[in-house]
Design goal:
three-stranded antiparallel β-sheet, seven-stranded mixed β-sheet, globular, alpha/beta
Length: about 325
Amino acid sequence: MLQLFHRTIRPLWVGMRTMSSSGAGNNEYFYQTDFSHASVVLGETTASMQMDQKLQSLNQDQYAPHNFVNNRMERMNLKGLKGGKVELHRNLETGVAEIKLSYPEKANALSGSMMIELADVIQDLEGWDEGKAVILYGDPEGVNFCAGADVNSVKSLGAKKGGLMCLFMQNALSRLQRLPMISVAAVQGNAIGGGAELTTACDFRVMCPDASIQFVQAKMGLSPGWGGGTRLVRIVGPRTAVKLLTSAQSLSADEAAGLGLSDFTVAESDEICNQTHDWLKQYTSPPTDIVRAMKTLVRHASELPLDQALQREKHVFTSLWGGPLQQAAFKNFSAK
């Protein structure tokens, strides 16, 4: 049974108070991290660099809650930068979801409103306890996976607002990466700039034979800003990352596979979603709790210091030990 979800974003207000500063009002927002005891107040006029410094002072997970950043983006009027849509399909039988980026006339580039819709879809998946995996792909009518940010949509943003957009997308893609589900970017056509960054937020990348991935930011007078530069280093290593980022080289499916950036090449371009589902079955065949536990364990191991990762591994293990899946498996083993 396939269900389609296309959400309309509504304002998500966080608590705020108004303070007087030199006779001018200054709205301050209470920024709550993932841990209830760690917080920092961000002012309306706080530069993104100052925000970074405050965040770096926290020795905790530093992903902004969805409601805070979503509200922040409303203040930047990103919701008013219309165009395209992001759709969520959830298959309740297989536990595999699909996120479709749809802006065909712009090669599936992300408008401001699509950025917020993407974050909202990810929040939906965070609450889907039956999910095993998610596939991210571009609308086939747009020919491409994603052409990054829609330039016409975001070109009016100044430096401070650009920094806030960076914070918003880093947060959204970090949450995508941290989902307790296996994530796959199904790349048809080109994944350019921010589109290339989107692919790095997924556990796997599956490509069509004629698809390409290109970090084109250097040609745009920019660097990656959605977390893709950092993730690229972790995927291919620093030397290769420097080459790809400075040269803006377009990688074919074979070249990406050779660098470890692509995990599988489908046979037919027009069947990428179906073939990605088929390829994914080898990893989603275990029960849901097992798939989610394994993904959680791997995420902790890749993000945390060894002692903390080992502690989290113990928590994952003990959550399964003695459960019905383990008892049934041991019973079957003893019967052989």
